[in-house]
Amino acid sequence: MKRSTAALATALLAVAPLGCGPDSAGFAWVLTAAAAVQEQSAAAQDEDGLILRRVWTGTEIDFYASSPSPDGRYLTDIDWMTGNLAVVDLLSGELRHMTNKGSWADSLTWAESSVFSPDGSQVAYTWFSDSKAGYEIWVINSDGTNPHVLLPKREDWVYFLIDDWSSDGRYLLVQVVGVEGIQLALVSTADGSIKVLESLGSEYTPLAAFSPDDRYVAFTYPSGEGSKDGDIFAISVVDEREFSLLSGPSDDRFMGFTPDGKSILFYSDREVTQGIWRLPIGPDLAAGEPELLRADVWRLLPIGFSRDAYFFGVPIEQPQVYTGAVDLAAGRFLRTPTPVQDLSEGTSAAGDWSPDGQYLAYVTNDPLVQSWRLVIRPVTGDDAREIPLELRSVRKVRWAPDSKSVMIVGNVQLRDALFRVDLATGRLERLLCFTFGLLDLDACSVPTVEGDPRYGEFSPDGRTFYFARGDPILGEAQIVARDMRNGAEREIATVRSLLNLSVSPDGRTLALHDVDRSSGVSRLLTVSTSGGEVRELYRAESLYAIEVGMGIPWTPDGRHIVFISDEEPGVAWKISSAGGAPQRLVELPGSYDWRHLRFHPDGSRIAYSTGEWKAEIWMIQNIPGAGGTNEGR
To answer: Domain range spanning residue 563?
Structure first.
């Protein structure tokens, strides 16, 4: 009944400390323009009676975590301002908390994937517990009462992604991550016991769902190793026989079984255009001929079926890399920042200028297929070059000193690693594996390092990689310098919860951003790359005084460190590396979540990422096999 993505716990561990906001017990707010959209919803009816209706627009719901209620009125969601499980009323636009964990300052606990029970009376959801340092599956009544653990944290299963709830109420369909990789499994709603149906290796399926009679489970899986195209398979719940429903050269993606069980919906590019298709199936899953229901439906993100309608999302705004120019001395723009690419090209992030000043490197991604690409864009305005990246996620992009290769901190096989991309050949080479991540599902042929590379940075000469060891989020972190030539390591300093690290242009000093969660203090620190005393540069009596995602870059002359305060969104401040009070620099254009600020070697051009995830939610009615028009909506 719902969509899931290849979302990783590692990515969300990075998100958790970014949340901010007041304690919001009983908090409810109206999503942007939701009521107006409902009253004036766009609707289109085909000649065959198929109706598409826009029911919501605004800041994007986490589609991988969402599920429609059986009556189609509500969607589950995550309120990332607090981490609470929430439900959105599609009629009024109100968002209501189901859990009440408090604010991020109270706990680093959060909800993720969720699904309504068949009768709509309960919701099952994954829950990360900071006290237990792991994921559990919980169940709560739809009115927010009686939250209880169904499946406690286990050492052999480290992550859960809930896809569906069987129509008889007996099982949850869950993707579980454990020592044998990702597996599609049934979790008993009676006692939390697990029965594995199918091993998926290191690939999440973007969607899995029960047939209405609970006899089968269908899902999407890559056409071949390394392929971004999907085929559709089914497996018998009774005897685990596997069936191929759709395969071939097209990219076919499962959307769900129709409520009558006589067909499946799928999203495909099989006739050049992207569109929604129906595949008739018999009682034994014998497939008929695919039928195109609606062409020219682009960037569809499946959510799932209610009793008589299908819901899907369409992104209308995504974060992008912006470039501009600033006068650091005068604190004004020389050129107002603008996006480097169009929304149709996907989201872009993690920009960095080459040391020779000739290129901007960044990554772009299509969230539907998780297709990451490295983009090398000349500053002259000539055509950009794209290099495919066989990575699950990308955290950071940095140029090598010779401007001939790009270093990437990314995730593959559920393990964070450091990579190098040779720009002459496009070859992606893994240099180091890190213990931070879920599991290492393949034999790492390069050295494995204990630590967390998310805040890692290279020295200007590329010979040293600085990273964190320990527990950067919840405890102390040791700053470690690793010699990339011989693997020798030395400890630079120990700090509290580390949130950022940067290296001065001359390579002699590290800037650090840490927080003390017990006292609610944020600090900017400096320490020599040779080690020694850690010096406090700036202190603020707020955990959110320094925005995490933007980083703490040095200006090219090494005289200042730049940061953004969450308390004045989008405003960049500079502070002398010798100490003193911060000075207001400029207000960066953007709408939300400023990230990855980088300075060009010329000292004026800048690159950064900003933008909200905004989307529309659409409902399809009169689908053959899916009931009536639901005119009461």
So the answer is: 320-613
3-state secondary structure of 54: strand
Angstrom CA distances, 41 to 55, 276, 314, 450, 620, stand at: 6, 21, 15, 53, 13
Token pair, residue 459, equals 């020295």
The continuous run of DSSP H or E covering 36 comes out as helix 34-39
Instruction: For the sheet with 605-610, list strands across it.
Output: 332-339, 320-327, 605-610, 595-599
Band of residue 370 on the pLDDT scale cut at 50, 70, 90: low
Please give the structure tokens belonging to residue 583.
């000075």
Query: What tens digit of pLDDT does each residue of 568-616 get?
Result: 788 999 999 998 999 999 988 887 678 899 999 999 999 999 888 888 8
Q: How far apart are CA 394 and CA 8, in angstroms?
A: 12
pTM (2 d.p.): 0.77
pLDDT band at 30 (very low <50, low <70, confident <90, very high): very low
Amino acid at 426: G
Q: How many domains does the chain have?
A: 2
pLDDT of residue 37 exceeding 50, the answer is no
The domain that holds 433 is classified in CATH as 2.120.10.30
Structural domain contains residue 387: yes
Of the candidates 625, 619, 568, the residue with the CA atom closest to the CA atom of residue 594: 568
Mean pLDDT of the chain: 83
Q: Which tokens belong to 398?
A: 């940095």
Of 537, 495, 532, nearest to 515 (Cα)?
A: 495
DSSP letter string over 122-147?
EEEEEEEETTTTEEEEEEEETTS---
Is residue 633, in this structure, part of any structural domain at all? no
